[in-house]
């Protein structure tokens, strides 16, 4: 079963739809495919409202996909329920943007970490106290005896995010969805959290889907980058290749907004409207904002097409 070349996670043509007013639906995830190998980090980049968190939630099965498949270790988990979701979460965990909102204000750090161990019945096989110390060491929250007794409000934002990461690690997952884990943190402590994730990847062969709107951190931590807009993959490539040879106008606009990029000011932004996610829209989701737009772009949705070297783009006018 577990072949070394088999990806840990394989997502094919994933669709998520939500009802909106007037018997219409939006599709914040519209035919997205990707794979992640053990110990690999895929950075998912896109602006607010492009469907990033919905992809993450579909992967941990907090939202039900309307189409496509999600496979983990060759097992189809697209529509699992109940008990199987609980078992599945021993392999796949999620860390959220707001470390304060995701922790319970009346529980200590120790209680936060003991909870998943008991819930997943790991207290039958491991020493809970020793495991909590080990988790706190792993995420750099030392001295552990001191940290264990603290409440969330006694910790800094960065320390709270480390607790949230330790809690995700408690069940020994193979894969973690990290949804903008640094965007609410003070700039000075962001690098430390990214480094921690990188260390976990290296030490535990942990795979990540790292969600961000920032290409610089996406490149720092990601082996590959996937650029999302309007629920669709616009471009994907190994990180260095994507930053060196950005092909999609949207990627080039994102790069133009990245300090220090040599693509700065490359293309002018034409407008700044939110992506249209309404089901049945036509053409390219980026057309209304694209500096290179032609009539074809409004009519025909561009397919994701390989440029070579694991680099694909969905655009009628790729650079
Ligand atoms: N449970 C939901 N019900 C209805 N609409 C939702 C739900 N969750 C997200 N959306 C909508 O889906 C779109 C994409 O949201 P999200 O995945 O959070 O984007 P991102 O994380 O890229 O900012 C947004 O328009 C959002 O309002
Ligand atoms: Mg989000």
Concise synopsis of the structure shown:
This protein has helices at residues 52-59, 82-88, 109-119, 128-138, 144-148, 157-169, 187-204, 215-221, 239-244, 249-256, 295-299, and strands spanning 9-20, 24-36, 41-45, 67-72, 75-76, 92-95, 175-179, 207-212, 224-229, 232-238, 305-308, 311-313.
Structural key phrases:
Rossmann fold; 23% strand; 8-stranded mixed β-sheet; alpha/beta; binds adenosine-5'-diphosphate; 319 residues
| Average pLDDT taken over every residue | 94
Q: Which descriptor suits the 3D outline? A: globular
Low-confidence stretches: none
Largest sheet: 8 strands, mixed
What would you note in describing this structure?
By secondary structure, the protein is α/β, with parallel strands linked by helices. The chain has a domain at 9-91 and 173-243: 3-Layer(aba) Sandwich (Rossmann fold). Helices cover 31% and strands 23% of the residues. It has helices at residues 52-59, 82-88, 109-119, 128-138, 144-148, 157-169, 187-204, 215-221, 239-244, 249-256, 295-299, and strands spanning 9-20, 24-36, 41-45, 67-72, 75-76, 92-95, 175-179, 207-212, 224-229, 232-238, 305-308, 311-313. The strands form 2 sheets. An 8-stranded mixed beta sheet has the order 6-7-8-3-9-10-12-11, with helices on both faces. Strand 11 (305-308) and strand 12 (311-313) form a beta hairpin. The radius of gyration is 20 Å and the shape is globular. The mean pLDDT is 94. Residues 18, 28, 46, 48-54, 277 line the site of adenosine-5'-diphosphate. The site of adenosine-5'-diphosphate has 11 residues, from helix 1.
């Amino acid at each position: 079963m577990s072949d070394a070349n088999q990806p840990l996670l394989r997502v094919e043509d994933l669709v998520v739809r939500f009802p909106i007013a007037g018997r219409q639906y939006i599709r914040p995830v519209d035919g997205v495919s990707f794979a992640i190998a053990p110990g690999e980090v895929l950075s998912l980049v896109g602006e607010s409202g492009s469907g990033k968190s919905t992809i993450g939630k579909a992967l941990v099965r907090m939202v039900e996909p309307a189409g496509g498949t999600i496979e983990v270790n060759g097992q189809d988990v697209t529509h699992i329920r109940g008990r199987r979701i609980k078992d599945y979460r021993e392999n796949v965990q999620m860390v959220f943007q707001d470390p304060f909102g995701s922790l319970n204000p009346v529980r200590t750090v120790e209680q936060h970490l003991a909870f998943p161990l008991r819930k997943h019945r790991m207290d039958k096989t491991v020493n809970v106290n020793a495991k909590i110390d080990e988790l706190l060491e792993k995420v750099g929250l030392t001295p552990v005896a001191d940290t264990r007794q603290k409440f969330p409000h006694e910790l800094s934002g960065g320390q709270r995010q480390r607790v949230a990461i330790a809690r995700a690690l408690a069940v020994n997952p193979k894969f973690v969805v990290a949804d903008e884990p640094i965007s609410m943190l003070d700039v000075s402590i962001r690098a430390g959290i990214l480094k921690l994730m990188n260390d976990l990847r290296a030490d535990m062969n942990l795979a990540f889907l790292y969600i961000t709107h920032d290409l610089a951190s996406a490149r720092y931590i990601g082996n590959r980058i996937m650029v999302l807009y309007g629920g669709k993959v616009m471009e994907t490539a190994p990180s260095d290749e994507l930053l060196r040879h950005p092909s999609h106008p949207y990627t080039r606009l994102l790069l133009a907004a990245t300090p220090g990029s040599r693509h700065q000011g490359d293309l002018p932004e034409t407008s700044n409207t939110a992506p249209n996610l309404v089901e049945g829209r036509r053409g390219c989701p980026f057309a209304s904002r694209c500096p290179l737009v032609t009539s074809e772009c409004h009519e025909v949705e561009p397919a994701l097409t390989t440029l070579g070297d694991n680099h694909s783009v969905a655009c009628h006018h790729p650079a």
